[in-house]
Design goal:
CATH topology: Four Helix Bundle (Hemerythrin (Met), subunit A)
Radius of gyration: 19 Å
Structural class: mainly alpha
Number of domains: 1
CATH superfamily: Cytochrome c oxidase, subunit III, four-helix bundle
Strand content: under 5%
CATH architecture: Up-down Bundle
CATH class: Mainly Alpha
Largest sheet: none
Helix content: over 70%
Distance between the termini: 43 Å
Length: 191
């Protein structure tokens, strides 16, 4: 059951379906990348002793917290508590920025350890790491833009009568969080 009648219109259902198609497409892309990673592990030049930087562990905690805070913003929207929606959405945005910074620190650590994306000092292991994490990061940038738009629209009162944009952003943000959790667990256990 929907919390607002505008979410059950044919247009709202179509927009939700388009988002789901986009997320399924992204999932298939990452499934292909992680499948290629698994197949490439059989190569003789695969790094067996490569560990993920601690910053990636920290970023995992941050993205889980951001999902919780955006869920709280969504819950506050349902309860029509505008101040709490603003507070939790801003907190989610700050956590998204912290996630981005921790990813940058993680890559700086990879480079400091002498692992590069291409060139003579690169390896297939770290090249896959770069491709997978940077691809997720590109989607995260899109998520940050969505959070900014949601915040501005909320401040301008656009979700009081038509909360669809917020609902779609909420779904997409949780998708990004689950996607990172999958990638982190995958990269952590399948080194």
């Amino acid at each position: 059951m929907s919390f607002h009648p505008s979410l059950t219109t044919p247009q709202a259902k179509a927009k939700k379906m388009m988002l789901w198609f986009a997320m399924i497409s992204m999932t298939m892309m990452f499934a292909g990348l992680t499948s290629a990673y698994v197949v490439s592990k059989a190569r003789p030049d695969w790094l067996e002793n490569f560990n993920l930087p601690a910053a990636f562990h920290f970023s995992t905690l941050v993205i889980v917290l951001s999902s919780i805070s955006f869920w709280m913003a969504f819950k506050s929207l349902k309860e029509r508590n505008a101040a709490a929606v603003t507070r939790y959405t801003v907190f989610t945005l700050l956590l998204a920025i912290a996630f981005s910074v921790s990813q940058w620190v993680g890559f700086s650590s990879v480079v400091a350890d002498g692992y590069y994306f291409t060139g003579s000092e690169s390896s297939v292991t770290t090249s896959f790491l770069y491709v997978i994490v940077i691809t997720h990061f590109a989607h995260l940038i899109g998520g940050i833009v969505v959070l900014l738009i949601v915040l501005l629209n909320h401040i301008n009162g656009r979700y009081q009568d038509k909360p669809l944009g917020f609902v779609l952003a909420h779904t997409f943000w949780h998708f990004l969080g689950f996607l990172w959790l999958y990638l982190f667990v995958f990269l952590f256990f399948l080194r």
